[in-house]
Amino acid sequence: MANIGHITQVIGSTFDAEFPEDILPAIYNAVTVAVKEGDETRTLTGEISKHLGGGRVRCVALGSTEGMVRGQDCVDTGSPVTVPVGEETLGRVFNMLGQPVDGRGAVNVKETRPIHRDSPRLEDLTTSTEVFPTGIKVIDLLTPLCVAAKPVCSVERVSAKPLF
Predict the structure, then answer these.
(1) How confident is the model at residue 34 (pLDDT cuts 50, 70, 90)?
(2) Residue 155: CB partners within 8 Å, gap ≥ 6?
(3) Can you give the residue ranges of every domain in the chain?
(4) For the chain: N or C, fewer Cβ within 10 A?
(5) In whole angstroms, how large is the CA radius of gyration of the chain?
(6) Three-class DSSP category at 30
(7) Residue 135 above 90 pLDDT?
(8) Residue 26: pLDDT above 80?
(9) Is the pLDDT of residue 163 over 60?
(10) CA 164, CA 151: separation in Å to the nearest integer?
(11) Over the stretch 70-110, which tens digit does the pLDDT of each residue have?
(12) Measured between alpha carbons, how far is residue 38 from residues 23, 41, 42, 130, 134 in Å?
């Protein structure tokens, strides 16, 4: 049975939802809300960021909150937001929910992982330098990144070109 709550407040890109206190969703769980826009309905996903007490949670919306209203149903998915990982994802473009947005169709992946994970154990880390394949040909050829490197990406003000 799905854990269904209702929206109590919408504040910009965040919203509060109330669930029964005995089955309060965990922090980082994904929640979905069906938002009506005219004749169409879209699904908005949010991520629980804080327990407020009294069965209420604060969620960060992973999309536009326009059209959300108080009293609307909110469904706890029971799991965090996950994204696809693996060789199949190289060279593809995804949104923050792990859905492909490059117009090349669905991605057949074998594994998905939550966007919030524990750090790897110290024993699992290597001391050698390894190249990190981004899947973006220009970056991989001209400025390859090392695993665990901290690349900086900014945008030029005049031409809006990304700079690494």
Answers:
(1) very high
(2) 161, 162, 163
(3) 3-80, 81-115, 130-164
(4) N
(5) 19
(6) strand
(7) no
(8) yes
(9) no
(10) 7
(11) 999 999 999 999 999 988 888 888 888 888 998 998 889 89
(12) 33, 8, 10, 51, 39
The token pair at 81 is 């937001």
DSSP-assigned letters across all residues of 81-144: -EEEESGGGTT--B-TTS-B-SSS-----SEEEESS-PPPPGGG--SS--EE--S-HHHHHHSP
Contact criterion met (CB below 8 Å) for 16 and 9: yes
List the one residue out of 93, 1, 7 whose CA is nearest residue 56: 7
**Residue 17 confidence (pLDDT):** 96
Q: Which two tokens stand for residue 47?
A: 């991520």
CATH number of 3-80: 2.40.10.170
